[in-house]
Amino acid sequence: MAPEVLPKPQMRGLLAKRLRFHMVTAFVLSLGVAALYKFGVADKRKKAYADFYRNYDAMKDFEEMRKAGIFQSVK
Amino acid sequence: MMLPKAAWSLLLRKGGRGRRGMHSSEGTARGGGKTPPYTNCYAQRHYPMPEEPFCTELNAEQQALKEKEKGSWTLLTHAEKVAPPYSHSMNGNTQPDLQDFKGFLVGKVYRLQFNETFAEMNRRSNEWKTVMGYVFFFFGFAALVIWWQRVYMFPPKPITLTDEWKAKQLQRMLDMKVNPVQGLASRWDYEKKQWKK
């Protein structure tokens, strides 16, 4: 019974191949995650704070809180 | 499930030991990772080169082959490399029949040293389904036990966890405007007195 001849597997450069794949993937993934964080979290938060404080009136806020009765020093 | 049913039933009946295990005095030799004298029996993926060869008691034909193996391997015949060492003899060192199905490309010399090829040794199994089944079953059982406990055993809630206290607590937090930029108070509509949509 003659066995079929398998194709010769890759004998050399296995580490280099693995390293290249994983370096590229790691690079792409890290940059991707960093970009997503910058836009999705950091910039969004900065904008939220800017929008909140653009027209913020501290005294008006204080009066609302005082009327709600949460302070002990001033009623 | 690469093996035919006959081979599987044989393997399961022998408990994975092969005929060697039934006659040896070592008891159940279940492969590497156990305490001596079991450690040297079967190769595993994490233990690929055991100290003891698989077949230690060789008949004359096998001993002759071992002698031949000490020389140049180019002198080994095609048959010795390719034919399986199929043997029905009742000494303790024959292979389980699964080799007939998978071992036809692996020769006698290999089979004397090793029980299974890498492909056989690393075969998948369906054990994970059993494991997950047990895990989920005990999750459910634990849930039932805790439910019973909640109905019959738990004391009354502390006052701070009752619904009315929690409602008053939430109203106070909204009055204080807790986290007004991105958090709780930013989700509350103070004009309409309801949560923002």
Automatic annotation (TrEMBL), chain A:
Keyword match Transmembrane: yes
Give the protein family. Answer: Belongs to the cytochrome c oxidase subunit 6c family.
In which organism is this protein found? Colobus angolensis palliatus
User: SUPFAM superfamilies annotated for this entry?
Assistant: Mitochondrial cytochrome c oxidase subunit VIc
Entry keywords, A to Z: Membrane, Mitochondrion, Mitochondrion inner membrane, Transmembrane, Transmembrane helix
Where, subcellularly, is it found? Mitochondrion inner membrane
Q: What does this protein do?
A: Component of the cytochrome c oxidase, the last enzyme in the mitochondrial electron transport chain which drives oxidative phosphorylation. The respiratory chain contains 3 multisubunit complexes succinate dehydrogenase (complex II, CII), ubiquinol-cytochrome c oxidoreductase (cytochrome b-c1 complex, complex III, CIII) and cytochrome c oxidase (complex IV, CIV), that cooperate to transfer electrons derived from NADH and succinate to molecular oxygen, creating an electrochemical gradient over the inner membrane that drives transmembrane transport and the ATP synthase.
What this protein is called in its record is Cytochrome c oxidase subunit 6C
What does the record give as its pathway? Energy metabolism; oxidative phosphorylation
Q: How does it sit in the membrane?
A: Single-pass membrane protein
Record flagged with keyword Transmembrane helix: yes
Quick one: a GO cellular component term? mitochondrial inner membrane
InterPro entries from the xrefs?
Cytochrome_c_oxidase_VIc, Cytochrome_c_oxidase_VIc/VIIs, Cytochrome_c_oxidase_VIc_sf
User: One of this protein's GO BP terms?
Assistant: mitochondrial electron transport, cytochrome c to oxygen
